[in-house]
Amino acid sequence: MEYLYDKLLEYSRSDFYPFHMPGHKRNREITGAALPYDIDITEIDGFDDLHHAVGILSEAQRRAASLYHAEETHFLVNGSTAGLLSAVLGSVPRHSRILMARNCHKSVYNAVYMGELYPLYVYPQFDQETQLNGEIRPEDVEDMLEQNEGIRAVVITSPTYDGVVSDIERIADIVHRRRIPLIIDEAHGAHFGFSPYFPENSNTKGADVVIHSLHKTMPSLTQTALLHINGEIADRENIRRYLHMLQTSSPSYILMASMDECIRTMKEKGNELFENYTELLEKARRKLKALKHLRLIESGNPEQGQYDRSKIVISGKDLIRIHREEEKTEKRFSVFDGRELYQALIREYHIQPEMAAGSYIIAMTGPGDTAEGLDRFVNAMGELDRELEKNVLKTKSDVFKILKQEMKYTSWEAGAFSSSGMKTEVVPWSKAAGRTAMEYAYLYPPGIPFIVPGEKIGHGTAVQIEAYEEMGFTIEGTRIQGKMEVMKDG
């Protein structure tokens, strides 16, 4: 069995001289940087071609398919974004309807724009207590399919950025009765199926197309991902055609070797790796459950496979922090929201969390974590919790909830209006309610839009976004911070 990294290493030590791309010519001395120039090649003899794989890359992709219980697997060197774009555009004809979870990643919205599709939204449940968006209910998917004709595909995100898992098996059964494909953005679940501590991956639950970001939770380099195709419903040829168009024609052999090594590692020592990882993770979670004021939260039932325990979500909901000024009697107060917790970890403990939301932070874990690293996080949480022991007051909760907006136009129709010279203006959020958006507005991470171009901005959403900016969050997608471009007359 031949692995790509081994072959690259062997080739780097040979006497072959490169009169081909890339321009560094495998010369490690040219810049002086400790980068892997010596194994960075292009499509040369013996190394196959990702876009027409018949050799070593074809074998590597078959190994990945076997490991992930998929019928067909493709390496993605442009991340899960390339996979989601290809899956949607390859499954839904132009100007057709698509049913998508409203908490999908922005790349699905970009696919809607590129394909000039008509989106219908199914909204996740919302847990007011934890302030997490919950699962997509199978019943809601079924209702939307029954009430709307002509839907050509369904796209669901599971697990979510917060770790919430939907019932993919039931949703797949509902979708397949209509003979349309179910596309699962399982980017955050590349570790699923390697331990009973986590849910099984969606290839085993009836999904037609599944996208995994290897780099998010697995030992693979940033930008690496997989696209899997199963069954007879998905248009495999069309999805492959879009993969050829949307992926670079010069795929990185370093990234592809990284994926192959990840698959190799899981095949050869995955059980041992995950046994150690889940043992350390469960030990950390048990300690975090003992926090008195900060809370380890979950939305769903981990024992029934409805939650991804690799995501450590710590909430400061309803807490106000008291700051005592030295040699002064007055006190200063601040809401101990997700941003405050996030910054405290960076500033005081040199711990970099994945993200901060309204009332909570997410700390992502993976099999690469160490006992020392998890202990540092647990100890930091304990110290912050004890500091709050004498300072706890209640405050109004901030809500990270995706509110429903009225869709006046699709995103691509709004884009066409803008290109045709339709007059627009930029208004502050305080004056944005009721106006038709011409820009996206989202937090990144997680990259889920609060507002999509063409939607009528709701009062609650305008207030919500203004509150986020006041807390120090940066709203992305808008050209001017604190303002939104809207249609001039509506």
Please describe the topology of this protein.
Blueprint: H1 4-12, H2 56-67, E1 72-76, H3 79-91, E2 97-101, H4 106-115, E3 118-122, E4 126-127, E5 132-133, H5 138-147, E6 151-157, H6 168-176, E7 182-185, E8 209-212, H7 214-217, E9 225-229, H8 236-246, H9 253-288, E10 295-296, E11 311-315, E12 320-324, E13 331-335, H10 338-349, E14 355-356, E15 360-364, H11 371-388, E16 406-407, H12 411-419, E17 424-428, E18 441-443, E19 448-451, E20 455-456, H13 459-470, E21 483-487
Parallel strand pairs: 2-3, 2-6, 6-7, 7-8
Antiparallel strand pairs: 1-9, 4-5, 8-9, 10-11, 11-15, 12-13, 14-15, 16-20, 17-21, 18-19
Helix pairs in contact: 2-9, 3-4, 3-8, 4-12, 5-6, 9-11
Structure description:
- Helices cover 34% and strands 17% of the residues.
- The protein contains 13 helices and 21 strands.
- The longest helix has 36 residues, at 253-288.
N-to-C span: 63 Å
Question: Helical stretch count?
Answer: 13
Number of DSSP E strands: 21
How would you characterize the largest beta sheet? 7 strands, mixed
Mean pLDDT: 91
| Main structural class | alpha+beta
Give the % helix. Answer: 25-40%
- CA gyration radius, whole angstroms: 24 Å
Strand content: 15-25%
